[in-house]
Amino acid sequence: MAEEKNLFDVEIICPDRVFHSGKAYMIEYNTTEGQIGVYKNHAPITNVIAPGVVTITDGSDKKITAAVHSGFATILQDKVTLLAEVAEWPDEIDVKRAQEAKERAEKRLSEHKEDLDVKRAEVALKKALVRLEIKK
Amino acid sequence: MASMKDIKQRKSSIQSTQQITKAMKLVSTVKLQKAKTRAENANPFFNHVYNTVSSILAKSKDINHPYLKPGDSDRIAVVVITSNRGLAGGYNSNVVKLITESGFDKDKVDIYAIGGKGRDSLDHKGYHVVSDDSPIMEAPTYEDAKAVCDKVLESFVKGEISEIYLAYAHFKNTVVNVPTLMKLLPVDMEAEEVEETKASAPMGFEPNEEEVLEMVIPKYITSLFYGALMEAVASENGARMQAMDSATSNAEEMISDLSLKYNRARQGAITQELTEIIAGAQAIS
Fold first, then answer.
1. Can you say how many angstroms the Cα of residue B107 is from the centroid of all Cα atoms in its chain?
2. With contacts defined as CB-CB under 8 Å, which chain B residues touch A32?
3. Which of B78, B152, B170, B227 has the lowest tally of Cβ within 10 angstroms?
4. Is A39 found in the same domain as A103?
């Protein structure tokens, strides 16, 4: 159980809605430089989010998770703001669709066609993998 | 004086027009409410992106990034957001007027049209329309905004255009929208705003300022597009609601005027008939 003074504000904002807003004891997410976990009083920093699972631990050690694809995060001493272009709760994810997307992307990448948009296929694959990971 | 039949026909035709304008007003009222909520929901994201961009620029004035300086080309791009449908008062023509009266050289402007009305009238005026994404106005999403943004940024990075502008109707409130022409790239933040952000704690950037900027600027432009699209939809429906409201009340006025004329004509006909009968009766006796 975390003390009140060790909590900080967390906001996850999407273009069309405020996805999540609340207090947290710790937040973990992927950046382009690797995974990081943030407690209160972290040095102010802005970093780029890599597709992955965001885990927020709240005051009573309860964990909530969400899938976040691309965006950036601003860490202030008492507030962390994640700006995500796409963010999803686990119950919003359609496993079947993600599975299909994953297979499609893998197929495209393995075929090595001339006109293949490798970057796009990789992004699609990554998104699908994140979605499947959070559903496990 | 028009005959009774003519007046009656005209009146019923105006009545059915009034029914249409009334219905259109109701429809755009509902659409406006929806669009307004969406526009408000888009705000927090945009504000935050804006703050981040300005804090990066405040911290590192000497960053040398293509997004921050004008390209070598003498062409400029204007993204024009209008509606696909008319009957919205001066909404579309006001946005178009912004461009025709902006002082841009007609031959050096590339128009990226979103919305059929703006595309058609700019094309007609002889502007060079390079891309047309009108269908997205029906239900704009963030992905749509991103697609347009990628297209414009690509030309910017390639050096085909040196500046990017955005023209749309800023939604002030239900009855007022302000046609706005704003410069998107190269980014130049107002000096005073930069001063403000300077006061906050020094911010670190990971991996470094350039890469964060590289990543944030497209998002900044996209969120501007998205916000502008949302506001444009709200403005369009607000303008249409007003136009239809005044059309309905004009029809009301015309109907009451015609009713009066009709009654007078009817009374005149009765009087005339009576005079004729009396005259006839007198002639017999």
1. 24
2. 206-207, 211
3. B170
4. no
Q: What is the pTM of this model?
A: 0.80
Element (H, E) at A41: none
CATH code, A77: 2.60.15.10
pLDDT tens across the length of chain A (136 residues): 567 788 889 989 888 888 888 888 889 888 888 888 988 888 888 888 888 888 898 878 888 888 888 888 888 888 888 888 888 888 888 888 888 888 888 887 787 766 667 777 777 888 888 888 777 6
**ipTM of the assembly?**
0.72
Number of domains in chain B: 1
SS3 (DSSP) at B160: coil
Regarding whether A49 and A12 lie in a shared domain, the answer is: yes
Domain contains B249: no
Contacts of B37 in chain A (CB under 8 A): none
With CA atoms as reference, the chain B residue closest to A50 would be B215
Beta bridge partners of B112: B79, B131
Q: What is the CATH number of the domain that holds B67?
A: 3.40.1380.10
Strand order in the sheet with B177-185: B128-132, B109-114, B76-81, B163-171, B177-185
